[in-house]
Specification:
By secondary structure, the protein is of the alpha/beta class. Helices cover 50% and strands 15% of the residues. The chain has a domain at 98-312: Glycerol-3-phosphate (1)-acyltransferase, CATH 3.40.1130. α8 links the parallel β3 and β4 (172-175). α2 crosses α4 (69-94) and α10 crosses α11. The radius of gyration is 19 Å and the shape is globular.
């Protein structure tokens, strides 16, 4: 049954209509002009959403206590502007032919996925860095039959449009917050020796494990580790970089293989291993991460839980 929060309303439609008009304007502009305009337009929204921007600065300061207030502010501004860049790049890339797409976004290490395709398949382990949506498009453009595990947004009109563009070159979406038993849907897909992309750094509302992330307690879904261990399939860490000329480069790292035996301890240890990959990346390039996402929303709850269950600290 559809949840009340996802029911269509007139307000939802008006929000969607305004966004759709803006999207149409961005899509009509030349690629680099669209990216620059969206960067500055979305960047200016931080002045309207001052409370959220301040929380971002606070989170950055706690993660990087050695940085000056000026450095923290610069990271926050760059991260906020990147949301506009992501938006424009996503729209522009989704309207390109495959040949033109590859001029603006390329995949390095695609052969690693190709070697697993049809044999083991695997999980694409990606986080909110630079432009994660671009890799979702690129995977299809480069010929991989992939699915993504995503969280549905509250506005159903906007969600439908995002999902349409996300899979415009092919693919499938499973919802972690609006689908019965998404774990089994993912498992059925992976049994076909295909790939599924999972964002590791999304705040979870249930089924979590608690880990230290950038020095603070955060909730993580164990679904990547559970699927990998249960099905004995590799995990491919992926991160996206943006070069000075604006070219997006999606890096597919060497596969990470799960423990051979299932246990709660192994799920926890493997999840921690996967977290470490992106924690290291975040420390090297903090402005590339989506700090607007309230990653430590449940920190107090997690600290309380770990205080009562110290054996679960890893």
């Amino acid at each position: 049954m559809e949840e009340t929060r996802f029911k269509k309303t007139p307000i939802h439609y008006l929000q969607y209509l305004g966004l759709k008009i803006f999207c149409m304007l961005i899509a009509l502009l030349p690629y680099r002009l669209a990216v620059g305009l969206a960067s500055h337009t979305i960047g200016a929204v931080r002045f309207v959403m001052g409370k959220r921007f301040k929380r971002m600065e606070t989170d950055i300061a706690r993660a990087f206590p050695e940085k000056t207030p000026q450095e923290i502010h610069q990271i926050a501004v760059a991260s906020w502007r990147n949301m506009g860049v992501i938006f424009a790049e996503f729209l522009q890339l989704s309207h390109l032919t495959n040949e033109k797409f590859k001029k603006y976004c390329r995949v390095e290490g695609a052969e690693k996925l190709r070697a697993a395709e049809g044999k083991t398949g695997g999980i694409i382990h990606i986080g909110h860095f630079t432009n994660w949506e671009a890799f979702g498009l690129a995977a299809s453009v480069y010929g991989f039959d992939k699915a993504v595990l995503a969280q549905r947004v509250d506005n159903p009109y906007v969600d439908e449009e995002i999902n349409r563009l996300r899979n415009i070159f092919g693919g499938h979406t499973f919802y972690s917050n609006h689908q019965d038993k998404p774990f089994f849907a993912c498992m059925r897909w992976l049994k076909k020796k295909k790939f599924i992309g999972i964002l590791f750094d999304q705040n979870t509302v249930s089924g979590e494990m608690w880990f230290s992330f950038m020095g603070r307690t955060a909730a993580f879904s164990p679904i990547t580790a559970l699927l990998a261990i249960k099905m004995q399939i590799p995990v491919f860490p992926v991160y996206v970089e943006r070069e000075k000329n604006g070219l997006l480069v999606c890096h597919v790292e060497d596969p990470v293989f799960p423990p051979a035996e299932y246990s709660t301890k192994n799920v926890r240890l493997f999840t921690k291993q996967l977290i470490g990959f992106y924690e290291s990346l975040l420390r090297k390039n903090p402005s590339s991460w989506l700090w607007a996402h309230n990653r430590w929303k449940r920190e107090a709850e997690g600290n309380q839980y770990l205080a009562a269950h110290p054996e679960e600290r890893v």
